[in-house]
Specification:
about 300 residues, alpha/beta, about 15% strand, binds ligand TUI, 11 strands, eight-stranded parallel sheet
Length: about 300
């Protein structure tokens, strides 16, 4: 399975692990990089020193390339960009915003910059400012989502830009990877499946919630705040939906959401926490080591393609 992404990022398989806030710590990122993909530390709302420590930990756990995902809504975005530059992190992905203003500084140190986008318009805007590739993320994914599905978004982004496109959202096995390649993507980004791994340091109750979830267990709330977020339906989403119906202000809703991702992922509060999980959770039946997850995907890709060609 060769792909421009493998050459661009110097990795064996064009499989990135989503840089999920609170979920994607150095242990998970290093395990995915050691397994031949690209691991990404999720900076989330981390202060700069915490991120530096995480990057140093990852450098001890793997000598393969790994990256950092910067959430552009973080109050520390400027400081963490500086940490990424000082630490010479080779790959930077960004989410929940437009990284345009940071691209010159990142390109200066030769970091590959790969923004996550949820629209063709943003993909075109960012190609123009010189990003290296685009992660087109469908609304099947967990966390902060756009409004277009992976199946519809990916081919339209592929047609709109000439830089490599990585598909994200709803990819849970080799069939999803082959489908993404068929849509014109050069690689995939996988979040929920890697969150359900042994090396992921999330709370066992958060991981158990992924294994128990079905394809209809998640709901998107917060559209009225401008940050629609996909999580497992629970008491928090019921309270959130109630408040939205009663016309709560954006501040009140953001107040309700604040700190709830940490509550779910770190403290295992899956009733009142924000259990950010994608729709592929329905096909995840167990927590497995990253190497096993990666090897099963890579082994099955040729079989999926052979099965397809037999039907031609
Ligand atoms: O159009 C523009 O200029 C920028 O607009 C954008 C709008 C959306 C996106 C986008 C969609 N998906 C992604 C990548 N995925 C994510 O960013 N997923 C996330 N999950 C949890 C996060 S923490 C958070 C964030 C908001 C509210 C509550 N918590 S961020 N980025 C990127 C840019």
């Amino acid at each position: 399975l060769n792909s421009k992404i493998c050459q661009l990022l110097n990795i064996k398989y064009p499989i990135l692990q989503g840089g999920m806030a609170w979920v994607a710590t150095a242990e998970l990122a290093a395990a995915v990089s050691n397994a031949g993909g690209l691991g990404l530390i999720g900076a989330g709302h981390m202060p700069p020193d915490a991120l530096k420590a995480e990057i140093r930990k990852a450098k001890k756990l793997t000598d393969k390339p790994f990256g950092v995902n910067i959430m552009l809504m973080s109050p520390f975005v400027k400081e963490v960009m500086q940490v990424v530059i000082d630490e010479r992190v080779p790959v930077v992905t960004t989410g929940a915003g437009n990284p345009g203003e940071y691209i010159p500084a990142l390109r200066e140190i030769g970091a590959k910059v790969i923004p996550v986008v949820a629209s063709v318009a943003l993909a075109k805007r960012l190609e123009r400012v010189g990003v290296d590739a685009i992660i087109a993320e469908g609304m099947e994914s967990g966390g902060h989502v756009g409004e277009v599905t992976t199946m519809a978004l990916v081919p339209q982004v592929v047609d709109a830009v000439s830089i490599p496109v990585i598909a994200a959202g709803g990819i849970g096995d080799a069939r999803g990877v082959v489908a993404a390649l068929a849509l014109g993507a050069q690689g995939v980004q996988i979040g929920t499946l890697f969150a359900a791994s042994s090396e992921c340091t999330a709370h066992p109750k958060y991981k158990e919630a992924i294994v128990k979830a079905k394809e209809r267990s998640t709901i998107v709330t917060g559209a009225s705040t401008g940050h629609p977020v996909r999580t497992i339906a629970n008491r928090l989403t019921r309270d959130f939906t109630e408040m939205e119906k009663r016309g709560a202000t954006v501040e009140e809703l953001d107040q309700l959401g604040a700190g709830k991702l940490k509550a779910a992922v770190r403290d295992g509060d899956i009733e009142y926490g924000s259990v950010m999980v994608g729709q592929v959770a329905g096909m995840i039946g167990a927590i497995r080591p990253v190497a096993e997850i990666m090897q099963e995907i890579v082994k099955n890709i040729p079989e999926v393609i052979t099965e397809l060609t037999k039907r031609m």
